[in-house]
Design goal:
By secondary structure, this protein is α+β, with helices and mostly antiparallel strands. It folds into two domains: 111 residues, Roll (Diaminopimelate Epimerase, Chain A, domain 1), CATH 3.10.310; 139 residues, Diaminopimelate Epimerase, Chain A, domain 1 (Roll), CATH 3.10.310. It has a 17-stranded mixed β-sheet that branches. Bound molecules: the ligand N[C@@H](CCC[C@H](N)C(=O)O)C(=O)O. The ligand N[C@@H](CCC[C@H](N)C(=O)O)C(=O)O binds next to strand 4, helix 2 and helix 4.
Length: 271
């Protein structure tokens, strides 16, 4: 499946027993020797009575993580297409808490991603104290960059750039992803503000490298832009793979993400 070109192998772990480990994920995610994907998603039975499913996410490098926005939209499309659910509103448990997926009449999927978290220790990010705009100076290879630090269930660092097309994603991305102040690594967003209602964004993802789109990255960028007083409540986020709509009313409120989710092919894996 794919959401704006951020691609996934999705497993039905409700009807079949599946053991996923890092070696299997790395093998399947390999674009030359495997199927190829940015993340592997696992649909599992619910772990609490207020949810219909449990959603697990593995990066291409084998690491299991807390949240994935584009994957959440694909998750909704998958459980409907596979006949695992006939609902249009689907509550789903994740390692980062419950989210709600809404299958819209026009084919788009809208997701209540929950409220962002700014407390540095909850990303985790090493900082003396939380700042009002959630930005922090960070020394990267001897140069100071001002980054926004936001958790959308998973950790994000957001940098402002003048032009995303020339942003140093391939060089600065990995240095920031592995920065020692982010003890569990971090997803790195490079955000260009076009107008208060439109941004361009590229994301160097933890455990996957630069992807064509990152849903939680889009949410984190809009939240960080709003915390800095630069963005409106509704923002069109243009990523290399397409456009997402992100809505965030402010502190304590859920971030809403709306966009497409596409099944590319079905298959069986022999083992
Ligand atoms: N592509 C995703 C995010 C996947 C997880 C991320 N790389 C992490 O390690 O937190 C999205 O659409 O949000």
């Amino acid at each position: 499946m794919q959401g704006l070109g951020n691609d996934f192998v999705v497993f039905d772990g409700v009807r079949q027993q599946i053991e996923v480990d890092a070696a299997l994920v790395q093998r399947l995610a390999d674009r030359r020797f495997g199927i190829g994907c940015d993340q592997i998603l696992l649909v599992e039975p619910p772990r609490s009575p207020d949810t219909d499913f449990y959603y697990r996410i593995f990066n291409a490098d084998g690491s299991e993580v807390e949240q994935c926005g584009n994957g959440a939209r694909c998750f909704a499309r998958f459980v409907r297409d596979q006949g695992l659910s006939d609902r249009t509103v689907i509550p789903v448990g994740t390692a980062a808490g419950a989210i709600r997926l809404y299958l819209e009449a026009d084919g788009q999927v809208r997701v209540d991603m929950g409220a962002p978290v700014f407390t540095p220790s909850r990303l985790p990010f090493a900082a003396d104290a939380e700042t009002p705009d959630a930005t922090y100076p960070l020394d990267i290879a001897g140069k100071i960059y001002q980054i926004g630090a936001v958790s959308m269930g998973n950790p994000h660092a957001v940098l402002l750039v003048d032009d995303v097309s020339t942003a140093p994603v391939a060089t600065l991305g990995p240095l920031l992803e592995q920065h020692p102040r982010f003890s569990r690594r971090v997803n790195v967003g490079f955000m260009q503000i076009v107008t208060p209602a439109a941004i361009r964004l590229r994301v160097y993802e933890r455990g996957a490298g630069e992807t064509l789109a990152c849903g939680t990255g889009a949410c984190a960028a809009v939240v960080s832009g709003r915390q800095r007083g630069l963005l409106a409540e509704r923002v069109q986020v243009t990523l290399p793979g397409g456009t997402l709509r992100i809505d965030w009313a402010g502190q304590g409120q859920s971030v809403w993400m709306t966009g497409p989710a596409v099944r590319v092919f079905d298959g069986e894996i022999e083992h």
